[in-house]
Amino acid sequence: MQDVKSFINSNKDRLLNELIELLKIPSVSADPAYAHDVLTTADAVKQALEKAGCDTVEICETQGFPIVYGEKLVDPSLPTILVYGHYDVQPADPINLWDSPPYEPVIKKTELHPEGAIFARGACDDKGQMYMHVKALEFMVSTNQLPCNVKFMIEGEEEVGSVNLSIFVKENREKLKNDVILISDTGMISKDVPSITTGLRGLSYVEVEVTGPNRDLHSGLYGGAVANPINILTKMIASLHDKDNHITIPGFYDNVEELSTEERAEMAKAPFNLEGYQKSIGINSVYGEKGYSTNERNSIRPTLDVNGIWGGYTGEGAKTVIASKAYAKISMRLVPNQDWENITELFSKHFTSIAPEGVTVKVNPHHGGQGYVTPIDSVGYRAASKAYETTFGKTPIPQRSGGSIPIVALFEKELQSKTILMGFGLDSDAIHSPNEHFGVWNYLKGIETIPYFYKNFTEMNS
Amino acid sequence: MQDVKSFINSNKDRLLNELIELLKIPSVSADPAYAHDVLTTADAVKQALEKAGCDTVEICETQGFPIVYGEKLVDPSLPTILVYGHYDVQPADPINLWDSPPYEPVIKKTELHPEGAIFARGACDDKGQMYMHVKALEFMVSTNQLPCNVKFMIEGEEEVGSVNLSIFVKENREKLKNDVILISDTGMISKDVPSITTGLRGLSYVEVEVTGPNRDLHSGLYGGAVANPINILTKMIASLHDKDNHITIPGFYDNVEELSTEERAEMAKAPFNLEGYQKSIGINSVYGEKGYSTNERNSIRPTLDVNGIWGGYTGEGAKTVIASKAYAKISMRLVPNQDWENITELFSKHFTSIAPEGVTVKVNPHHGGQGYVTPIDSVGYRAASKAYETTFGKTPIPQRSGGSIPIVALFEKELQSKTILMGFGLDSDAIHSPNEHFGVWNYLKGIETIPYFYKNFTEMNS
User: Fold this and answer.
1) What is the torsion angle, in degrees rounded to the nearest 10, for the CA atoms of residue B352, residue B355, residue B361 and residue B367?
2) Chain B residues within 8 A of A317 when measuring between CB atoms
3) For the Peptidase M20 dimerisation domain, which residue ranges apply (chains A, B) (predicted)?
4) Fewer CB atoms near the end CB (10 Å): N or C, chain B?
C-alpha cells in the first residue's frame, strides 16, 4: 500500500474541501430547530458513501433521525469490518465565544497544528473523524486494494443518546454482522505519541427540577421564611460530593472496578505533563477525588458533573425575586461494571430523598450507556497497533478514555464483536466547546492509517 | 372631608382608566431596551402632577433616569409633606407565566378582590400606590381642602438601587425640606386588618462569577479531573448557611438588633394563619432560620437568597460540557444596625476566601441600602393611624416589613425627617412576580385615606 501517501498528497485540497462542505450543515441533534439540517446531512453522507464506492447505501428511517447504512461486500469468505460514526454534532453555544462562526469552517494555524486545523462545530467530533473512513474507503476501492468486506453505519443521534440506534442494531443483527467494529470518535495522546483507546466510561445523564412556591415571590416579603428553590438546589448538589470529592450517593461505588497497584503503576507510565495540562486549559490547580492522579480521575474513576444550571432572574441588573423553580442538568461518567440504569435509579432515589420539606423534586433521566473495556490481545487491537507502527513509526499506547460512546457496549452485546477505537483527535481540539477544530495533519494521518488496519486485520484473520 | 367618598364614587372609572394608561408603558429600569419607555413614563407622571394641581413640576435630569419633582406650596408657615414614589417597574419575566400580557392591564375578580383587581406589571409596585397620592392631591386641590404644603419626588430607578436619587437628595436638601415624608410602597396585613409599616429591611445585592478552565470542556475528557465551576458555585453557596439556616459569613450577625422577649411576644400577636400562608403560595411547609417564627424570619431577621443562577448548557436536551464560568445573583436582606456596605464587604471577603484552588471568583456589588425603623409615637405615625381609623374603622397594627426601600434611611439622614409608610397593597399582590395586581378596593381606599393624613398631620402640628 505504497501509494496511500501519494493519494493523499495529490488529493489534499479535495479531501479538505469535501469535509468543509459537510461541516457547513449545522446538524445539531439536540435542538429541534436544526431538524432539517440534520436530515440534509444524512443525505450528504449517503452521497459521500456512494461516491466512495459503496455498492448499496440506504437512509434507514427511525423514530428520530435516520441512520445512513452503506456496504461494499467483496467476498463472503473474507472478514467484515463495520465502521460506526455519527453525523450529528453538539450545540454550538455559547456562540459568542467562537472566534469564527461554528458553521463557516476555516483553516487556521495553531501552536499544536502548524499545518493548520479546520475550525468548525463537528470538525473533529465526529464529522472529521467519520469522513476519514469514507475517504480511506475511496482510496482502497479506487486502487482496487479493499481486502475485505466493509459496512458503514453512520447515525444522527450520538449526541443525544443513540436511543434509536439501539433499536436499529437489535432489529438488524444479521445485516450488521461483522468481525470487528471500527470507530474513530476518540483521541490520541499527542501527534508524536499515538495511542489506542481501550476503555470508555459509561454515562448517566439526568435533569433535575426543584419547585418551591407556586410562583416567583418577592425576596423581601418572603425571603428567609420559605425554601428558596435555588438555595435548596445548590445545597442538594453540593451534598453529592464529600470533602474528599467522593460521590455520596449510596451504592454508587458498589460495582466500581478497582485497578490493582500494578495496573495503576502501568497507567502512571503514560506521558503526562501537569504544567502543560493546566496551562492548556488556563487553570492553576487540578481538582478531584482524593487519592487518585489526574489521569486516573478522568479515566478509571466515575464522576458527577453539573453540565448546566439555571433559575430565577439571569438578565441584566438586579431583580429581588425568589424563583418558583430551579433546574440543573447533571451527568455521571461511569466505569466498567457500573450499570447506567442502576446508577440513574440510585441517583433519582437519593436526590429525591435529600429534598427538604417545602420543595418538591423531579428527576428526569435523559439517556445513558455502559462503559466499555477492550482487551489488547485481540486480533483487532493487534491489527490497529501494527497500522500505527507503519504510519507513525511507533507502537501506540493503550489508553483508557474518560469520554463515553454509550453505544459501544451495546454493539458488543448485540453483535458479539469487539470494537477498536482508532481516534486521531487531540484533547485540545475543543470538542463540545467553542472553537472546536481538527488538525489537518491528524485528518490526513487518519486516512493514511485506516487502510493498513484493513490489510492487517484481513491478513491476521486468514 | 365628607365628600372624598363621593369624589371617588363619581370619578371611579376615570381614576381607574388613568392608572391603566400609565401601566401600559413598560418602564423597566433594569433593562436598557426599555429606556425610552422609562422616559415616556416620567413625562406622563409630570403631566399627571400638573393636572392634579401642582404649581410647579420639573423633570430633573440625573446620570440615569430623571426624577419628577412637583410642588404645591400653600403657606410657608404650614407643615410640608414630601411624597415619594417611583414610576419604574421590575422586569416582567418570566413572561410566559403571565395570564395576561404584563403591559396590557385588565381588571379581573379574584377571591381576595371580589370588586376586581388591576393586573399589570407595576399595578401595585409602585405605579398604583404612587398614583393614589396624585389623585388624593387632585381631590384636595379641586375641593380647596389642601391643608398644607406638598412636594412630590417620583423617581425612575427604585428597582435598580436609587443611586442617582441619593445624589439628587444630597444636592437638593433645601428644595426637599419637609416635616414628614409619606410613602406608599409597602403593604398591609389584609383588607380588614389595616397596618402601618414601621420597619424595613436593608439590602445588599451582589453578583458572583466563578471561573474555572479558560473554555468550556468536554465533561468526559476532563470530568473528575478539573474543578467544575458550577459544582464549585453550588458548594460555595450551600456553605453560606449552616444546618440551622444561620448565615455563616463571619461577622454577619455582629450588629443585628436582637428583639427582647417582650417585643417578640408583641409581634406574635399579629394575626397570622400558617395554613393560609402556605396555601397562598402552594407550599407544604415553611423553611428558615431555626428558633424564629415565619413572621420573624421575614421581618426582624436578615437573610441570604439566591435570586438567579446560571451556567453551562441550559437548552433543550443534553450537552456533556464543563462550563468555563458559572454565575449567581445573591441578595441579603438586612435588619436595623447592619450596615449594607459593611455586609457587602464581609460577603465579598468571605466568598472569595472559600473558593478552592482551580477556580477564580469575582464578586460585583450591585447596590444596597440600610434598613429602617420608625417610632410609633411620632406625630406622623399618629396622624396616619388616625386616618386609618377614620376610613377603615379600626386602629392599624404597626408591622415590620421584610422588604426594603433602601432610600428611606438616606432620607432620614439627609433631610432629617421621619418617613411614614402607608401601604395599601397585599402580600398576595404578586409584586415582582408574574400576574402582579392591585385591588380596585385597595387603590380607592388609599385615595380615600391619604387626605385624612394631611388633615391630621396639619392639625397635630398646629
Assistant:
1) -40
2) 29-31, 91, 160, 366
3) 199-358
4) C
